[in-house]
Amino acid sequence: MYLKTQKEIEKKKEQGVFPGAVFAFIEGDKQEIHVIGEARIVPEALPMDEDYLFDVASLTKVICTTSVVLKLLEDGKIQLDDPLKTYLPEFKDESISIRHLLTHTSDINTWIENRDELNQEELRAAYLTLKAGENLGKKVKYTDAGTILLGFMLEKIYWEDVIDIFQEEVLNPIGMMQSLFLPKASNRIVPTEQLSTGEVIHGVTHDPKARILAEHAGNAGLFTNVSDVIKFVEMYLQLGSVENGTFLKKETILKLLKDCTPSGKGHRSLGWDLKEDEMDGHPLLFHTGYTGTFLLLDVEEHSAFIFLSNRIHPADHRDEYIQNRDEILSIYLKEKALKKK
């Protein structure tokens, strides 16, 4: 399945773009998982394993935070165009809505002085003072602040730590039983970056904001593996259905295939980026994670491409990786289009 894409991924690994990867293709009722390279090369090499858990970084946003917010919208417990302040009264700005945060159109000024040196309480307090910019609702500007603030909102609604909400409302119902937050052991976890001290981040969240916020982080922090991610993706491809019933309504999934930005021209859905099929232009759901992960879902044709890599191990070469990632995606989309001819 997708042989050209497989060869391109293998080539990128050989070129050192990432030490290893676990990736999967879904096509109708067929699933294919591939494992290449090493899970770790510092301090010594360790072969990649299909069952290993990855710090999937911002995939946490769509798998967890967006999912819970969508469920609340379905239940009528929140309204998409209500100000965040309606549900999180301690948030200072009255102009930023839930839609703005989900579509990255808040133009929020995210600069926080000495951010990575603050403790959990100080960082939370700082986020509550952030304000919208002059392009509120007009432009897409991707930021972690949106899902961090939505995480605080969820805690206010459920009166629980956000990672416990994610466990109860997302991981358990979908059956993602190997996935977790704040791991206690690191033996099955793929390490990430090597710090200037020589220490390798391993079993600890790579994102510094999520690392500080810990149990209160809605932007990153999920550790998961390919089999659990497949369960999440299949829920979308099955239009919200899971083994034990309905996780999201069919109408909710289908609405996500439309531009949900205030202008309708921002190419973003609720939580998701929107790409287009190369054959007929129908919408695809897409999201990335800083650590070297992405999801590309074609709900209409029941197909998906799941990619989990350790591209920041041992060093972070972000710009180079993004170019190579986009080349992989381009080959996949072309190969996908050719399959329909």
Task: List descriptors.
341 residues; 10 helices; two-stranded antiparallel ribbon; Beta-lactamase; alpha+beta; 7-stranded antiparallel β-sheet
What best-fitting shape do the alpha-carbon axes yield? globular
Q: Quote the average pLDDT.
A: 98
Q: Specify the helix fraction band.
A: 25-40%
Number of helices: 10
Q: Might you state the CATH topology name?
A: Beta-lactamase
SSE sequence, one letter per element? HEEEEHHHHHHEHEEHEEEEH
Percentage beta strand: 15-25%
Task: Give the C-alpha Rg.
Answer: 19 Å
Word description of this protein:
- This protein has helices spanning 3-14, 59-74, 98-102, 120-127, 145-158, 162-174, 208-213, 226-237, 250-255, 318-339; strands at 20-27, 30-40, 46-47, 54-55, 223-224, 241-242, 245-246, 273-276, 283-289, 293-298, 303-309.
- With 341 residues, the chain is an alpha+beta fold.
- The longest helix has 22 residues, at 318-339.
- Helix content is 33%, strand content 16%.
- 43% of the residues are buried.
- The chain has a single domain (3-339), classed as Beta-lactamase (3-Layer(aba) Sandwich).
- Pfam families: Beta-lactamase (PF00144).
- Keywords: Hydrolase.
- GO terms for molecular function: hydrolase activity.
- This is Beta-lactamase.
- Residues 7-321 form the Beta-lactamase-related domain.
Which helices and strands, and how do they pair?
Layout (H helix, E strand, L loop, with lengths): L2 H12 L5 E8 L2 E11 L5 E2 L6 E2 L3 H16 L23 H5 L17 H8 L17 H14 L3 H13 L33 H6 L9 E2 L1 H12 L3 E2 L2 E2 L3 H6 L17 E4 L6 E7 L3 E6 L4 E7 L8 H22 L2
Antiparallel strand pairs: 1-2, 1-11, 2-3, 4-5, 6-7, 8-9, 9-10, 10-11
Helix pairs in contact: 1-10, 2-5, 2-6
